[in-house]
Amino acid sequence: MERDDLVSRLPKGGFAVREFTKEDVEEIFGIRIALESYAAYLAAIHITEEKISTLEKKATESVNALEKGEDEKAVQLHTEFHDFLYKSCKSKKLTEMINNFRDYFYRYRSALLHAPGGFKTSISGHHQMIDAMKKKNPKLVEKLVRSHLERGMEIVLKEIDEGRLVP
Fold first, then answer.
1. CATH code for position 17
2. What pLDDT score does 7 carry?
């Protein structure tokens, strides 16, 4: 975590979690958008019906968890949806790059949960991605993931501006 600049070593021993700026958030999301939209494009080319069924199951379970008030489970399923989608891209190096940034990304996922309509909109986006994959339309999947992540970034930045989230 120190190597990834997520924590800093304290002079008298121990570690402190690094605070991020709004510029850090924008940079992190910019990298995420580039990597994950490309991974989604590749996944749409290579994905099988079986893998699409798994994504559908994750999306449905996310809705159910949200309706039951199981917030942590909903966030976990949301993460699993994205992880499974990107692993379907069949690019080991790209998947590794996405995973290397995972800790940066994860700290902001819960912000979607608390923003009005944020998580429901996100899950709706997952269903749109699945429909585009069923139609074997990789450019549309790429576009949907890009707008999905841009919307997430806007929510996180708004939460920061309104004082509900510390960067």
1. 1.20.120.530
2. 45
- Domain presence at residue 107: yes
Of 143, 114, 116, 115, the residue nearest 128 (C-alpha):
143
- CB-based contact 54:130 (threshold 8 Å): no
Mean pLDDT across the chain: 85
Nearest to 58 by CA among 88, 28, 84, 39: 84
In whole angstroms, what is the distance from residue 38 CA to residue 40 CA?
Answer: 5
Expressed in angstroms, the distance from the first to the final Cα of the chain is 17
pLDDT classification of 5: cutoffs 50, 70, 90: low
Q: Are 32 and 101 in contact (CB under 8 A)?
A: yes
Find the range with the poorest average confidence among 63-67, 78-82, 107-111, 159-163.
Answer: 107-111
**How many structural domains compose the chain?**
1
The pTM score is 0.83
Give the tens place of pLDDT for each residue, 139-153. 999 999 999 999 988
Q: Is pLDDT at 56 greater than 90 in this prediction?
A: yes
Q: How far apart are CA 110 and CA 49, in angstroms?
A: 30
Question: Is 166 part of a structural domain of the chain?
Answer: no
Distance, CA of 13 to CA of 53 (rounded, Å): 49
Structural domain range at position 76:
7-161
